[in-house]
Amino acid sequence: MQPDFTVHNTTPAGGRRSVLRLPHGEVQTPVFMPVGTAATVKTIEQSVIESLNAEIILANTYHLYLRPGHELIRRAGGVHRFMSWQRPMLTDSGGFQVFSLSKLRKVTPDGVEFRSHLDGSKHFFSPEHSMAVQIALGADIMMAFDECVETPASWERTRDSMGLTHEWAARSKRYWEEHRHEVPWGQGLGIREQGLDLAPGGSTAFGRTYDHTRFSDKHQLLFGIVQGGMYPDLRRESAERLVEMDFPGYAIGGLAVGEPREVTREMIALSLEILPKDKPRYVMGVGYPDEIEEYAKLGVDMMDCVLPTRAGRHGLVFIREDPNDRASKPIRWNIKRVDNAEDHGPIDAGCKCMVCERYSRAYLRHLYVSDEPLGAMLNSIHNVAFYLETMTRVRAELQAQV
Amino acid sequence: MQPDFTVHNTTPAGGRRSVLRLPHGEVQTPVFMPVGTAATVKTIEQSVIESLNAEIILANTYHLYLRPGHELIRRAGGVHRFMSWQRPMLTDSGGFQVFSLSKLRKVTPDGVEFRSHLDGSKHFFSPEHSMAVQIALGADIMMAFDECVETPASWERTRDSMGLTHEWAARSKRYWEEHRHEVPWGQGLGIREQGLDLAPGGSTAFGRTYDHTRFSDKHQLLFGIVQGGMYPDLRRESAERLVEMDFPGYAIGGLAVGEPREVTREMIALSLEILPKDKPRYVMGVGYPDEIEEYAKLGVDMMDCVLPTRAGRHGLVFIREDPNDRASKPIRWNIKRVDNAEDHGPIDAGCKCMVCERYSRAYLRHLYVSDEPLGAMLNSIHNVAFYLETMTRVRAELQAQV
């Protein structure tokens, strides 16, 4: 299936400037997607995310399924309406969190039985159920339900898991094709909004125009996920099998799980050889600022990672070694350092974000050591800005290489 | 001493519309001052506080003395520069926190010896030391160092404490008169900023114009604090004694410590009879939304309270019983309530704050039960907006009663 994806130019190394048009808006690629796990990018309010020019964010299916529940969100009109984010969104399938967060996990060919990390209650995720949940959430892009294998894993274990992932990918796609029309865009209005004038261009209780008709001919895209662990032959096989299934886009999963960087790159590179060039290629869960730049220049179109926000909450902020050279080496700077205590300059003197425009390292250090909520917030805002600035620069560099 | 305080009109009940001109700007009164304890209004970033039209905020001397330290802040050019807040500020004297937060407190006629609640280290606060710390911090308004007496307290105990407070008020004033020229406005530039062009109108590392000359003929104001517990005769005596000392402004302290509302009102009313009408009158640490309205209409010009931000962090948000009547009864609404779970309307349908313009009760409830930082932030922003909106309405009502 063809996505609305236009590749403008491709560089010799493989990186390319493209545009992905989604129901909720356009996304310039390569793109870094901030992660909004439980329908919130931790500590950062939506108008701030908008001001950072993030065009697409992620939400986690496992978390939202458990709380507040996908049916509640469906009734709210989907996760965009629920969290008041009007731009594109992507949901993962829940597969990774079931693997990494839940307790007492049992995998069968049918799916995964697990206990919630929140309250120990029993749940079951299958490809069909994951699709149903993601359709109810209504992100622009959904991910096929895959099995995540532990690291390291033997070739046999990896091959068996890959086989299961391929079956689950086919089942995901089948369910999506049959049920994607159920996406709640334009439906499932909030209780309070019923009875209000909601004709095209009509306002909600929030005085915002919500035009339902813009979604009437649109649906979500389902991406398949290439697995195969760290085994080149399995990776190739997985990519080929998924390409046969003709997904609108492809992710490269199961990486950045502790393997050496060179291996990550190798697995990405060989997957990119096989994945179609006229569809988006998404490496999940990466990475450090130099990594996202490296992979974008290889031909990766989309990436996501909790690192900017998580590091921010731990007092770690990204800077450029030479503030005046935004392409210089990225460094992780610990705001707690004693030598920040009276440093009245910004985190990064070359950064133009709202934090670096206004606040000093001294103040940010004070906030952090005082455990003040504003500390985590400002660190996170800067870090997300840093990541987005990185991709803006990379896009410009790719565009210039005609 | 005369402050730059202009009373525009006084209503029969005593409330009045005035303007207080301070070194960092003008304040329309009666005013509610959000509390920024450790140089941050908890969870709310400074540009958001500005957008809420808060004209003056508070910081706590005890907290900043302990961490990061007043000398560090003095070297930074004062707390305004340190936290990047360019509007008026007020610091309390530290007296109340020494009383309520510290461990192993020992009061002598000279001052108070105490142990830090942070690390148990020993410290000593005297009127002179409190003044020195507050001068180093550089808020527009400072408070005299007073003794706080426990509640309830006998008449004798209250009288003795009051006597000490009066001696300390005189010592505070003497020190302030001798040392207020040491305020670091325009001095004590940050390390990074040294060497930059900082002539009047010159920019800092932050690209902001910092005009030092605007402070060259200005200094901080020191307010005296009326004590006297819940004893009318002692309250009158305290007010009279402080008026004799000719402070630029007066606070009414030691209230809202558990006494019945009628007693609070009585103590305020009789203090207001004695305090001069041509100077600001500030009731510390109050109150609920109906209280601040009540006291403002009696003639109180300034109030502060942690309630809007603290309640917000605990999932409690203020609404009007009738959203369309902003003067109707204020109600504290618990965002955790199950009946919020699918309520897609705003916290308060008549509130025009950024939270009520964008986010639903359902989403805010989700954030709160999920312990997401954005929850506490949005609740707090709404609550501060609610308080500031209350005072805006009260000022308009007072102005209209010509």
Distance between the termini of chain A: 28 Å
So what's the overall shape of chain A? Answer: globular
Largest interface pair:
A-B, 52 and 52 residues
Q: What's the number of helices of chain A? A: 13
Strand residues, percent of chain A: 15-25%
Q: What is the count of β-strands of chain A? A: 16
Report the average pLDDT across residues of chain A: 92
The whole-angstrom Rg of chain A is 21 Å
What features would you describe in this structure?
The structure is a homodimer of 402-residue chains. Chain A is an alpha/beta fold and 402 residues long. Chain A has 13 helices and 16 strands. In chain A, helix 7 (155-179) packs parallel to helix 8 (232-244). The longest helix of chain A has 28 residues, at 373-400. At the A-B interface, helix 4, helix 12 and helix 13 of A face helix 4, helix 12 and helix 13 of B.
